[in-house]
């Protein structure tokens, strides 16, 4: 009996160390419950299988795609397109957003044009990019870059404009050059807003990917969606949607981990366990 109490006591002592892992696992509760409910509804005939396949059938479709090697070709193509488009769009947004944030004159010239371009739907760019750039990889990457540009640009511009003016005045008082002012004061102070924009841009990059892969694509998750629609295979459509959701979540988690590391100096409110 004493040995049992000792084991229980040690387990209770280690429980606080497991709390972060348990918190992470809570995010799986709702998806798993929905999958189980969907499986029951389809198997019992409440939902028609030809319109909403059971999760087990979708899993089988993914397994067959992976076994044939087709899945990895589609994933590789989509990852390269999103990576290239996001990197180009975010880099341009950081450069131009910093310039516009520092210069009222640049804002007066560029801001109206950017606001008009931001309102154009992604699919409206497709025919124009086909006419200008052909049907190879270039128009696909450009379209994703367009989707990634505006969230980063707007967030960075707002972050720079919300910086305390006294910080800038202190930097100028110490004789910092414009480049040093940006590197040592403006960008570090605007980092929280920048990361918010980057995470929004990454999500939009995955959304724009589907529109991009409608441009004469023969590989990619967007192509899988289109192929499933044309061949009346809802299991293929849902498999592609789940892959897009999974990749979007994984890439956002990586960016969030980078944000946490880069902003570890902040002592910000993280929310309470009991809610409001």
Describe this structure in words.
Its main location: membrane. Pfam families: BPD_transp_1. The chain crosses the membrane at residues 28-46, 79-102, 114-135, 141-160, 204-224, 236-255. This is Sulfonate transport system permease protein. It is found in: Cell membrane. There is one protein chain. With 276 residues, this protein is an all-alpha fold. It has one domain (57-262): MetI-like (MetI-like fold, Orthogonal Bundle), CATH 1.10.3720. The protein contains eleven helices and no strands. The protein has helices spanning 2-25, 29-43, 55-68, 70-102, 104-118, 122-133, 137-161, 165-173, 178-212, 221-230, 234-262. The protein is globular. The model has no long low-confidence stretch (mean pLDDT 83).
Keywords summarizing the entry:
276 residues; mainly alpha; MetI-like fold; 11 helices
């Amino acid at each position: 009996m004493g040995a049992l109490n000792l084991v229980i006591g040690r387990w209770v002592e280690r429980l606080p160390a497991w709390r972060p892992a348990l918190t992470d696992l809570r995010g799986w509760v709702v998806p798993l419950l929905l999958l189980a409910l969907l499986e029951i509804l389809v198997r019992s005939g409440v939902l028609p299988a030809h319109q909403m396949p059971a999760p087990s059938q979708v899993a089988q479709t993914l397994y067959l795609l992976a076994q044939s090697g087709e899945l990895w070709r589609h994933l590789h193509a989509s990852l390269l397109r999103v990576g290239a488009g996001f990197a180009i769009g975010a880099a341009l947004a950081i450069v131009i957003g910093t310039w516009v944030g520092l210069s009222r004159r640049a804002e007066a010239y560029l801001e109206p044009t950017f606001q008009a371009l931001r309102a154009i739907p992604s699919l409206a760019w497709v025919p124009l990019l086909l006419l200008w750039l052909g049907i190879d990889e270039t128009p696909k990457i450009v379209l994703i870059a367009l989707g990634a540009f505006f969230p980063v640009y707007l967030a960075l511009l707002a972050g720079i404009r919300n910086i305390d003016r006294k910080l800038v005045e202190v930097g100028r008082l110490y004789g910092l050059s414009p480049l040093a002012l940006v590197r040592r004061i403006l960008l570090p102070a605007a980092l929280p807003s920048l990361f918010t924009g980057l995470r929004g841009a990454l999500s939009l990059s995955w959304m724009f990917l589907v529109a991009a892969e409608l441009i004469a694509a023969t590989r990619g998750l967007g192509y899988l969606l289109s192929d499933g629609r044309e061949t009346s295979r809802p299991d293929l459509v849902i498999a592609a949607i789940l892959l897009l959701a999974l990749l979007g979540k994984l890439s956002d988690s990586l960016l969030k981990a980078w944000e946490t590391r880069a902003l570890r100096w902040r002592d910000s409110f993280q929310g309470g366990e009991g809610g409001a």
